[in-house]
Recover the amino acids of this structure.
């Protein structure tokens, strides 16, 4: 488990260094994720310990957002003054994004299947 | 005596780390006890409880964060860990390459435009609009984007979390109503709109949905980081 955790941290570290060196507008952990993915593809094996540790960590992913979320306590004034705009953007904006993305992606999949059918 | 102990504990990281974990477990228990009702979202419950506890005890947020930062830190390795579901479902991802690219572009643009649009219609200040633009992107990246385009990074962090909660609570029901049955599409839509908190919810639908949500979250972070500054210039938004 410690070896697996170390693996995750090492890839995060490499990701952070890569971002610092390249000046890409991307966070280090996302680069770390892509690099670990490439490493796994290259090795063509997934160690059991890494899989278990990753799955445990991801099953509690929502816990990790709580500390930042509690930061809402610092924005009392702005939330009271602009609550309608904020709530509308967060609720309607998010639902619009979910619906539009799902429908467009589903549509492209249908089109792809249909054109594959015609080609066959 | 009791005050002495409180004064000592309230300033130590141990107390707030323990309280955060305990409140999270309580939130999860409530969620399961309610039969998994979406409105009892564990993150939302935990945040509400913790805010109440901090207000009642008069604890400032920085003191709380000194303890909670150990949990916050794990966001980094957890993001890296998303490589594992991606590796396991790579065949599926490869076959759906075109739908993923189109879905991602649509999702990133709709995410920013709908947030800015709705807030603008309802009289949001320019700084609020700029803080809202990256709301569907995972916290650390969204904060970086907000800073770059002139929003308030710490306000963005809060907006991002609440967006994630909205997505986790409402997206599965919305997708069912839209008759979306493909778990890959469900995961993609939830991940693009509601980043990591959505991904946590998608992992409960199935690990396939979770893999696509994780992929969507990572790619949307890259794409929105590139598109946000262009979009803000195009819309003539200034703080």
């Amino acid at each position: 488990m410690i070896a697996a955790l170390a693996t995750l941290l090492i890839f995060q570290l490499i990701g952070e260094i890569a971002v610092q060196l390249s000046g890409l507008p991307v966070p280090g952990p996302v680069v770390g994720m892509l690099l670990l993915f490439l490493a796994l593809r290259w090795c063509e094996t997934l160690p059991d310990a890494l899989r278990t540790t990753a799955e445990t960590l991801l099953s509690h992913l929502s816990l990790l957002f709580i500390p930042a979320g509690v930061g809402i306590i610092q924005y009392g004034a702005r939330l009271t003054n602009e609550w309608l705009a904020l709530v509308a953007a967060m609720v309607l904006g998010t639902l619009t994004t979910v619906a539009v993305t799902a429908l467009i992606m589903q549509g492209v999949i249908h089109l792809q299947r249909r054109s594959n059918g015609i080609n066959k | 005596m009791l005050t002495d102990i409180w004064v000592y504990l309230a300033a130590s990281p141990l107390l707030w780390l323990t309280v955060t974990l305990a409140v999270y477990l309580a939130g999860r228990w409530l969620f399961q006890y309610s039969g998994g009702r979406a409105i009892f979202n564990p993150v939302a419950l935990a945040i509400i409880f913790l805010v109440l506890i901090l207000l009642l005890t008069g604890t400032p947020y920085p003191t709380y964060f000194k303890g909670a930062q150990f949990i916050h830190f794990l966001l980094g390795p957890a993001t890296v860990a998303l490589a594992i579901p991606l590796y396991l479902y790579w065949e599926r991802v490869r076959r759906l390459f075109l739908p993923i690219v189109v879905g991602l572009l649509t999702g990133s643009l709709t995410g920013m435009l709908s947030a800015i649009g709705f807030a603008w219609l309802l009289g949001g200040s320019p700084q609020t609009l700029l803080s809202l633009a990256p709301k569907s992107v995972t916290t650390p990246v969204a904060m970086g984007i907000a800073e770059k385009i002139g929003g308030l990074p710490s306000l963005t962090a809060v907006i991002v979390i609440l967006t994630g909660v909205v997505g986790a609570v409402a997206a599965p029901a919305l997708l069912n109503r839209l008759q979306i049955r493909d778990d890959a599409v469900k995961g993609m839509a939830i991940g693009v709109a509601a980043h990591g908190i959505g991904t946590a919810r998608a992992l409960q639908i199935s690990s396939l949905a979770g893999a696509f949500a994780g992929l969507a979250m990572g790619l949307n972070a890259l794409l929105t980081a590139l598109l946000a500054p262009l979009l803000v210039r195009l819309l003539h938004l200034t703080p």
Summary: Chain B touches chain A through 110 residues (CB under 8 Å). The mean pLDDT of chain B is 90. Residues 116 and 129 of chain B are 5 Å apart (CA to CA). Chain B has two domains: 2-73, 80-234.
